Inverse folding.
């Protein structure tokens, strides 16, 4: 498929994602069922196609300083381009938007889509997130001293920062039918909050994170004890894992099995919420709690039930955390139908 | 993945409790409404951005144009609404982030020395204004940060109206854009800064200025978007994505009860009904 004006690393990755696991077929079936105008597209990204602009700045005209004539800002760099591409690829005619709140972006799309469905604006939604490597995030996180010297080690006593990953994750959200397969995955709860603390450091006590998890439980009408597994934000920066531990412990105590899957995937930034929602769906469908990779020695200062090995165990409800720069927090709760 | 959907498609109605406005030749809502109702001629002039005094001094020094414009209009709208700011959920929507900051980062990354400063980096996130808003106001409620390129105002309004009604909560909407430096300007000619803020409530209050209604099944329309009669205001409407709000603000200023079509996506616009309170 020619991406045409949308051609850039981020939209190439989006296209690869759309082609996986029968997603495109499922979307086309939904379009026939609900009508293309009744399906929204809400995707998260932090940097979208900014790599394209970074590369084009190397090709500026040496005399005039002008960017190359063939550079198309709107369909590559602009944050909306990944939603626009996805919308046009499927020929969808419903509301369309990008959520770009750093590393909570593609968790928060679930919240927005859920509201649009509840309001009757749409019948279904393509949600998820796409983020790809660019120099802005590599050099930016490096300037903050947040890039790990090796593959990231969430919750390790010697953890020293993130490994930047890239991902495209898509989920088709549909209304609850009368009959459900036991393995169907439900979006049960959503919680959102802001830290009101600092642009690039989490609240030291994890206060905003705690509020997001509590709100997610409230919207799902669940008690903390009913959550079987927590997919942590777990970036492997010293400050995130410490603050998240305080927040999780305040809501759940120290017994709930949890792990960060960023040791396996890296931190995929604006795609992390969507990617980890998919991992939660797999955990529910397969009865598999993923152990955190790369972590050698758990930090004794982080007293959670952190899984270092995969565990086979049927589970019913899981919570996923996504937190980001600017103090933006989102927690999602997913469940199995049966 | 499954989610409960609406039982019936009831109209979505919100009430406007406060308005904030800052843009080229528009210093605040109290003055801007006079231009929009036609009692004071509008003259295009460079947007004057105030210092964000609500921020601590360190953050104030780091704040770029996106933060200045969004905090100014947000504060104006919240003050008019009389609602407590620290519990107010917010929606921030912009056609892009801080383009001056982006230019500096891309220039550095294209040079031999690729080092960029931590401040440049954290100001580069699209949610910088939302983060600074939360820090300056102490607001720990949810903040949604959106982009729909030229459709960003209508997309933000849709999110804010939906959130207000579904969550039965007041919501602050802040839509803003800032000017582009060359060489980006030639690719994305946004000439100046502009911000529009609305505080919305799901029910009428003593302070309500106007009512906005959207029909859940028919709000997307192929009809053309409303324009401004005044040539300078129409130039502004077309030139800055946040200024696509002007026909809505004009209806508030003129206390009109009318159907309205706001500019939205390339192939579809957004139909609303507006009435004064």
């Amino acid at each position: 498929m020619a991406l045409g004006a949308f051609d850039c690393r981020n939209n190439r990755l989006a296209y690869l994602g759309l082609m996986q696991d029968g997603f495109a077929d499922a979307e086309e079936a939904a379009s026939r069922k609900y009508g293309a105008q009744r399906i929204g597209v809400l995707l998260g990204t932090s940097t979208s196609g900014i790599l394209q602009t970074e590369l084009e700045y190397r090709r500026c005209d040496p005399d005039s300083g002008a960017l190359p004539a063939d550079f198309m800002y709107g369909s590559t760099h602009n944050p909306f381009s990944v939603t626009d591409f996805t919308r046009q690829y499927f020929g969808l005619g419903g509301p369309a938007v990008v959520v770009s709140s750093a590393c909570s972006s593609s968790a928060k799309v679930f919240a927005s889509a859920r509201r649009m469905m509840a309001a009757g604006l749409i019948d279904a939604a393509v949600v998820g997130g796409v983020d790809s490597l660019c120099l802005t995030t590599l050099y930016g996180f490096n300037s903050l001293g947040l890039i790990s010297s090796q593959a990231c080690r969430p919750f390790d006593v010697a953890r020293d920062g993130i490994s930047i990953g890239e991902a495209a994750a898509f989920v088709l959200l549909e209304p609850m039918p009368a009959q459900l397969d036991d393995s169907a995955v439900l979006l049960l709860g959503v919680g959102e909050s802001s830290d009101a603390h600092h642009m690039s450091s989490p609240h030291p006590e994890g206060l905003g994170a705690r509020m997001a998890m509590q709100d997610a439980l409230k919207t799902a009408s669940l008690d903390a004890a009913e959550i079987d597994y927590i997919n942590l934000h777990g970036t492997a920066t010293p400050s995130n894992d410490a603050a998240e531990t305080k927040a999780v412990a305040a809501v759940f105590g120290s017994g709930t099995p949890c792990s960060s899957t960023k040791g396996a995937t890296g931190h995929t930034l604006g795609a992390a919420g969507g990617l980890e929602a998919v991992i939660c769906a797999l955990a529910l469908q397969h009865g598999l709690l993923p152990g955190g990779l790369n972590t050698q020695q758990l930090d004794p200062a982080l007293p959670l039930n952190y899984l270092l090995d995969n565990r086979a165990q049927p589970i019913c409800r899981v919570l996923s955390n996504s937190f980001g720069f600017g103090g933006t927090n989102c927690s999602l709760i997913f469940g199995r139908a049966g | 993945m499954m989610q409960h959907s609406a039982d019936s498609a009831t109209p979505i109605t919100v009430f406007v409790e406060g308005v904030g406005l800052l843009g080229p030749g528009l210093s605040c809502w109290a003055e801007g409404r006079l231009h929009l109702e036609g009692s004071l001629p509008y003259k295009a002039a460079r947007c004057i951005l105030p210092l964000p005094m609500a921020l601590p001094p360190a953050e104030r020094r780091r704040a770029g144009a996106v933060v200045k414009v969004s905090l100014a209009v947000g504060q104006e709208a919240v003050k008019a609404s009389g609602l407590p700011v620290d519990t107010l959920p917010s929606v921030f929507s912009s056609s892009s982030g801080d383009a001056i900051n982006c230019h500096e980062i891309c220039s550095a990354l294209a040079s031999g020395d690729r080092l960029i400063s931590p401040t440049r980096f954290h100001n580069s996130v699209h949610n910088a204004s939302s983060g600074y808003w939360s820090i300056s106001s102490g607001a720990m409620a949810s903040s949604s940060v959106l982009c729909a390129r030229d459709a960003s105002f209508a997309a933000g309004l849709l999110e804010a109206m939906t959130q207000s009604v579904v969550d039965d909560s007041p919501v602050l909407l802040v839509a803003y854009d800032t000017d582009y430096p060359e060489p980006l300007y030639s690719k994305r000619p946004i000439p100046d800064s502009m911000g529009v803020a609305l505080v919305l409530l799901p029910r009428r209050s003593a302070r309500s200025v106007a009512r906005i209604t959207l029909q859940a099944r028919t709000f997307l329309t192929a009809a053309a978007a409303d324009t401004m009669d005044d040539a300078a205001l129409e130039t502004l409407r077309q030139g800055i994505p946040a200024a696509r709000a002007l026909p809505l603000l004009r209806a508030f200023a003129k206390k009109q009860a009318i159907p309205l079509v706001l500019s939205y996506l390339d192939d579809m616009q957004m139909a609303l009904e507006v009435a004064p309170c």
